[in-house]
Structures are given as structure tokens and as C-alpha cells.
Amino acid sequence: MSPIHPIVWTLAFAFQILNATCIGGWLAGYGPTTSSDWAGRAVLIEVGMMIWAAGFLGNVYHDDELREVRRAAARKQERISKEQEEKGGSKRVDKVYEVPQNGLFRFILYPHYLCEWIEWGGFWLIGGFGCVPARSFLINEITTMTPRALSGRQWYINRFSKEKIGNRRAIIPGLL
To answer: Could you write out the DSSP letters of every residue in 134-161?
Structure first.
């Protein structure tokens, strides 16, 4: 795993605290607080929880697939380095990149982004369509992740060729 700068870690932590405070504050102050507020919402909450769980499980699965690709590449890199060292050559080996093949990676290059959106869409449904922090977070994720995924798809094409990437889209199968 690549090292992370302490400032990035600190800002990410601060964002998570701010986000949790916004969502918790909204739910406590504006969310459903009385029996009448909760009436008729059970189905939406249950559907939202299923959508959230599907997104969460998909996110965990695809993140683990990425980690396994990186672990396999690191093992391959180590093996090549040892072979070169045994032959008396240089120890330096260029970083090995591979295209993930399992799960939604067969159709899109950033399924963990899509699953993250599904997760937060489910959370928004659980909180209710008026849950401004959840909606804002989902919109923020879509608007910040989409350009990164599109430029990442171009990186994949430049690195591996259009033929190897094929018809895989960046985030949404067959569309984007």
C-alpha cells in the first residue's frame, strides 16, 4: 500500500467527523423524531437498508479485489527482483500494474465508486428524501469521483491499450 501524507490523513479524519456531525445533527434535529414521523416509513427504511447493504458488500468486495491485484503484483515484482538479483543484475523492478478481472471489474473500471454511490443512495433513502446531509454527500461523491474515474479510464487505456480495456466503462456499465 502506498504511504499517505499525514496532512491527507488529518483532513480525511476531519471530514469524517464533520460529515458524521452534520448527518447526526440533521437526523436528531430535523429527522423523524415522533411516532407520526416514523409512520409509513418502515418500507422505505427496509429498502434503504437493503440498498445500503448491497452497496457496502459490493464496495468491500471490489476494494478487496483491488488489494489482491496489488498483492499479486507485489509478489510478482518481488519474484522478478529476486531473479534479477540472482543473475547479478539490478535489483530495481518497475512497478507492475494489472487490470482487475473479477466482479463488476469485467464491465467497469471503478466498481468500488459505483458501490459507494449505491451505499450512500441507500443511506439517503433511510434518512428520508429530505435528509440534506446524506443527499449532499451523495452529490459530492458523484461530482468528485466521476472526473477521477473518467481520467482513470483514460490512464488504463494509455497504459494497457484500448483493446485490453475493451468496452469497459469508467463507472456505470454501458453508459459512463
So the answer is: HHHHHHHHHHHHHHHHHHHHHHHHHHH-
